[in-house]
Amino acid sequence: MLPSLYISHGSPMLALEPGASGPALRALAASLDRPKGIILMSAHWETQSLQVSSAAQPSTWHDFRGFPPELYQVNYPAPGDPELASRVARLLNDQGLPATLDADRPFDHGTWVPLSLMYADATIPVVQVSLASQGPAMQYRIGQALARLRGEGYLLIGSGSITHNLRELDWQATHDAAQPWAQAFRDWVVQALTDNAQSALLDYRQQAPHAARNHPTDEHLLPLFFAYGAGTAFSVAHTGFTLGALGMDIYRFD
């Protein structure tokens, strides 16, 4: 059975400057059986109602501005899987989570940046599940509803960032230096996941130290709950910070 994963995808520049995350993602992918397909929830697809991407050949969307020209030349031509997308939607609907198909959704950078480092050949079909707006408990239920697919050879991934306050990045920080408030939040999450403290995690905004400072908005943490809902045996695959406050952790749930 494949695990579910939570990946901190950092800046879009990770695709060109992978730092320590690149080898960690490549090693993680190499340690797993090759997936039949990937089902991914990205922080960069927020919707009011739950949607599933069903395009046969999604385009690569450079959903950012102000980066070097070469980044806009990166293409990740992985196929979609309309049949898998329909099954994912059925599983969600069967669990009381109404979901519809979106045949036009491209791959946003929360999808193609980490996958370009894990599976550079871009031949594994990828289906995205949107980040519906109902908070941690909703994403946890989505993960639970799709967990059975792990046993059928599908890899479930939540893609975000364990800390994400772009206004407080320190552009002079040394590579692994972390702001104390960012480190404290990251450590609280890891301990809560280690303890499988579900109620505390779902209420992280009230219980975790510096929660609002680390996540002024919570879209980059919410995919964690998707991965957590799909598998509970937690371990840390990679840890680190860039720019003082951007956590680059990678977690797996077996």
TrEMBL record:
Domain Extradiol ring-cleavage dioxygenase class III enzyme subunit B: 25-233
Keywords, alphabetical: Dioxygenase, Metal-binding, Oxidoreductase, Zinc
Cofactor(s) essential for the protein: Zn(2+)
Pfam families: LigB
Record carries keyword Signal: no
InterPro entries according to UniProt: Extradiol_dOase_DODA, Xdiol_dOase_suB
Keyword Zinc: yes
Alphabetical list of SUPFAM superfamilies matching this protein: LigB-like
Gene Ontology molecular-function annotations: ferrous iron binding; oxidoreductase activity, acting on single donors with incorporation of molecular oxygen, incorporation of two atoms of oxygen; zinc ion binding
Family (UniProt): Belongs to the DODA-type extradiol aromatic ring-opening dioxygenase family.
UniProt name for this protein: 4,5-DOPA dioxygenase extradiol
